[in-house]
Structures are given as structure tokens and as C-alpha cells.
Amino acid sequence: MSENCIFCKIANGVIPSKKIYEDEDVIAFNDINPSARIHFLIVPKIHIESLAHCETQHQTLVGKMLLLAPKLAKEQGLAGFKTLINTGVDGGQEVFHIHIHVLGGGNLPKT
Ligand code: AMP
Ligand code: ZN
Description:
22% strand; single chain; 21% helix
């Protein structure tokens, strides 16, 4: 756990979230400031700063996160969805713990 990381704190139950899924590796919860009617985040429990910090050892974990997107989207009632991974300050990343945004259900952002 990284000391000042909000997603580590959520993953460890230190601060609350609207959780929609959890297993030993991953947690998914609703975004606090949704950009679509449905907007949740898929987050690994281990602290990895961004997609650019992933290494070969993280391949299975990242694959698992990605494959969870359609499963959880379906559970949320979505027929289709958008995924987004912001990477680095220049990529619009604000929380430096890798996460996949999943958005759907209308009012989708253009990109
Ligand atoms: P990013 O810009 O890709 O780093 O996105 C970070 C996302 O985390 C934003 O969409 C925020 O609304 C969301 N967020 C920040 N704090 C929380 C929180 N405590 N619970 C849920 N979502 C959060
Ligand atoms: Zn973290």
C-alpha cells in the first residue's frame, strides 16, 4: 500500500467507496464524479502508478482487469461501453494508481 494513495486506501477499506466488485486482486467501484450515467473504475489492489509503470509480471493482472470490463458492464445493464486509461499528467491522469474507466448508459464523453 502506498501511503498517500486514495485508491490504495479504497482497496484496503480505509476510505469507503460504492463497490460493485471485489476479489483477491482487483476492486471496482463507482466513480465519485461520473462522466456518464454509469461510470466505474477497475483498480488493482497492488499499487502500480500507471500503465506506463506496468511490467511483464503485471501482464496477467492487467489482462484480468480488462476482461472484467465487459463482465461488470453487463452486470450494470450496459449493452455497450467505453473504456479509458489515462496515463501520466499529459494523458490526463489525476490519481496515480492505475485504473480502467468504464463508461456507458448515455451522456458519454466524445472520446
Ligand atoms: P484519472 O483522471 O484517470 O486519474 O481519473 C481519476 C478518477 O478517479 C476521476 O474520474 C475521479 O472522479 C475519480 N475519483 C477520485 N477520487 C475518488 C473516490 N474517492 N472514489 C471514487 N472515484 C474517485
Ligand atoms: Zn495506490
